[in-house]
Design brief:
It is globular, with a radius of gyration of 14 Å. The chain is built from 3 helices and 2 strands, in the order ααβαβ. The chain is of the alpha+beta class. It starts with 7 loop residues before the first helix and ends in an 8-residue tail after the last strand.
Length: about 80
């Protein structure tokens, strides 16, 4: 068995993989808030993100990315940007 000494996200960055692992608001439930899994709107607040996966610094970078465009979640997709 081979062991990878680090996270898969870091490995993907180091290998310059085209599709990177992104930050995702795991605690955000669009069904509760909007009645559907398909949702587009402002970036969810930091408390919807898992702090061990997304630091406040990384979240603030996401805020800049989504300042003038919607954050989107749809069935079968992760966040779009």
């Amino acid at each position: 068995m081979k062991v990878i000494p680090g996270s898969l996200g870091k490995l993907a960055k180091d290998l310059k993989v085209e599709t990177q692992k992104d930050h995702f608001p795991h605690y955000f439930n669009p069904i509760e808030l909007h009645g559907t899994l398909d949702w587009s709107g402002p970036l969810p607040k930091y408390n919807f993100f898992e702090s061990k996966r997304t630091s406040i610094i990384e979240y603030n970078e996401l805020v800049k990315v989504f300042k003038n465009k919607p954050f989107s979640i749809s069935r079968g997709e992760s966040l779009l940007y």
